[in-house]
Design brief:
The complex is a heterodimer of chains A (262) and B (247). With 262 residues, chain A is α/β, with parallel strands linked by helices. Helix content of chain A is 44%, strand content 21%. Chain A has a five-stranded mixed β-sheet. A five-stranded mixed β-sheet of chain A has the order 11-10-12-9-13, sandwiched between helices. Chain B is an all-alpha fold and 247 residues long. Chain B contains ten helices and no strands. Classes of the chains: A alpha/beta (262), B mainly alpha (247).
Amino acid sequence: MRKLGLTMLLIGALSFTALGCGNNEATDTDKSKGEKMDTIKIGTDAAYPPFEKQEGNGDITGFDIEVLDAIAKASGLEYTIENTGWDPLFYGIDNGKIDAGISAITITDERKEKYDFTEPYFEAKQVILLPKDSTVTSLKGLEGKNIGVQSATTGEVVVQQAFGKTYENLKGYDDTPSAIEDLKLGRLDAVVADNGVLLEYAKKLGSDKFKVIEDASFEPEYYGIITKKGNTQLLDKLNEGLKKIKEDGTYDKIYAKYFGAE
Amino acid sequence: MRLVTRDVKKVNLGDINNWFIENFNMDWSVVVDYKGYFIEGFFLTIQLTTVGIIFGLIIGLILGLMRVSGNRWLIRPAQIYVDIFRGTPLLLQILAIHKAVLPTLADLVGLDAPSSVTSAFVALSLNAGAYIAEIFRGGIQSIDKGQMEAARSLGMSYAQAMRFVILPQAFKRMLPPLGNEFIALMKDSSLVMVIAVHEITYAASTASKNTFEVWTPYIVAGVMYLFLTYILSRIVAYLERRYSTSQ
């Protein structure tokens, strides 16, 4: 009897789980069919301050998040935001778990093939973070030295372009703070990443210890909000909101708060 | 007599790759682009495993002997060591050793923080040591008490009895679990990719992240691990055979 009861319990639990899955799928399809847009799910990799980071209480904050919030308010979108991490953000958009991603994502031709981007909301440049006493003055000067980047970011791409795709001393970290920690500890000679991020860190670490240099070969790049290819309804809404906040000065206010006046 | 010449259709690797792209959405050229990392990763994984096995065996032997010594001042520390390294995730140990423990220790003695490869060697060895200690303890305790008593009554010291009577017999019994541990160690070495050590999984992950190709880098990495674990299991099997005939 006891065994039977246990089996029943197990079957019950399993079917309950299955039922749960079924329900989710149902709402998902409803959403794609529905005319009115429900709450959209946004993914981010909240380890890239000042663009996005997770506070001690779990809140996700940062420049991107405030821009997104302003866009949503301007275009009447409701949203929830989730800290998915960098790679799962893209997988999540592939399989529909999230609707859009804002995570300082550079608009590239490679990514455009797979995803849609909004109009740019930020102009970024790659810069090099170095110890104050470093004699390096350009990217080329880093040849043979240990360079840290966040894996699969533009920082990694520019180093690969300069020293080869499988450059031995290129260290790709899961997140930029880990690379900067290793620079602080002297394991790396330089970190290559976006200006927004490295300028903020250089400020935090103290300009007496670190400096940021630019390289003429780095072209400016633009951040966009990413959506699944073909989701024009959402894309239009986001673009509409972005246009509004750029026109009414909301964007400039947020920009000044994070990066100083332009 | 006429020589028959036949047109031999040349097999073009590019054509094969196109076939894969069209039919399976797999692009093998990604692996060729990143072959430098895959080759580096292959040899680094072997290095990580070898160092982990050697130092793991040394740490494990010392701790194992402490555990069976009968002296509580030796037993307790060994027990605490095993509890800590077996009771926390290896990933956590790698991160803590790389970011906190080694930089702090290096700073205390006035050295530069060791490289990420060094951190990986240290973390894997310390972790393997805990598991191997338990294998040694189990192996030694599985030998009949009478063996030790007989050896001691023949006038051998405790160390001699351990060295010439107990350990050789125990080692034979320890080989199968040691083989498991070595293979687990090789697979666990993939975790050190989080501190940017260029082992096999780092190569696969980097190739995949930069190209959005989600199949081929991981398939190649998997085949590399299968090949290496196969070799390792053959070595352990050879040792088992060799030691079983000696009795």
